[in-house]
């Protein structure tokens, strides 16, 4: 069976509201039931509420991956080290295409790390489907650790290359007969 909204994808469930087939990207689970994005959006907005069916609040469901319609959970945090340290690489992994502004000459490398640090969590939540807030935090923590290790590795490599260059210069000067004093 194929997803109603994405015919090229296999369905992983049926919406409890409209009975449409849903793929893993469209699927939203709430209180043990599967819903499609359009039906869950109706429930969030409240247009589908009846006296026996209360309107859902944004905190009741996972709205990640729904773009600008996503509700950003309070517990995501304000700073994203992965976005700050790995910029466009982090952006590819989190479907945050704004990160490619890093390649704008002069301004990109100076501004985009800071923008991604402050807006990265929000953009990543909106751009990609996450299992839960905890899953999101685990993945972002992994990105931060990779960013720190990449910075450490690049720093060590830079120091090694600097030492090699200085050594070659000193060796060249000594072999040419240069007198230090």
Description:
The chain is mainly alpha-helical. It has two domains: 13-61; 74-175, no CATH class. It has helices at 37-45, 81-93, 107-127, 133-175; strands spanning 13-14, 21-22, 28-30, 33-35. The longest helix is centred in the C-terminal third of the chain and has 43 residues, at 133-175. The termini are far apart. Mean pLDDT is 88; it is low at 48-56.
What labels would you give this structure?
two-stranded antiparallel sheet, 4 helices, 6% strand
What's the arrangement of secondary structure elements?
Blueprint: E1 13-14, E2 21-22, E3 28-30, E4 33-35, H1 37-45, H2 81-93, H3 107-127, H4 133-175
Antiparallel strand pairs: 1-2, 3-4
Helix pairs in contact: 2-3, 2-4
- Return the string of H and E elements: EEEEHHHH
**Residue share in helix:** 40-55%
Number of continuous helical runs: 4
Radius of gyration: 25 Å
Class by alpha and beta content = mainly alpha
What is the residue-averaged pLDDT?
Answer: 88
For the record, the count of structural domains works out to 2
């Amino acid at each position: 069976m194929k997803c109603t909204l994405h015919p090229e994808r296999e369905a992983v469930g049926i919406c409890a509201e409209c009975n449409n087939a849903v793929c893993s990207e469209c699927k939203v689970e709430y209180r043990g039931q599967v819903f499609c994005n359009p039906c869950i959006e109706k429930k969030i907005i409240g247009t589908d509420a009846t006296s026996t069916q209360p309107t859902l609040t944004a905190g009741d469901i996972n709205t990640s991956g729904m773009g600008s319609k996503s509700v950003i959970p309070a517990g995501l945090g304000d700073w994203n080290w992965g976005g700050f340290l790995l910029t466009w690489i982090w952006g590819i992994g989190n479907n945050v295409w704004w990160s490619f502004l890093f390649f704008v000459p002069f301004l990109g490398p100076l501004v985009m790390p800071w923008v991604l640090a402050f807006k990265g969590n929000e953009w990543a939540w909106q751009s990609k489907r996450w299992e839960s807030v905890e899953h999101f935090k685990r993945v972002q923590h992994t990105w931060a650790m990779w960013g720190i290790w990449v910075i450490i590795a690049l720093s060590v490599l830079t120091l090694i290359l600097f030492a090699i260059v200085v050594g070659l210069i000193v060796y060249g000067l000594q072999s040419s007969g240069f007198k230090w004093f």
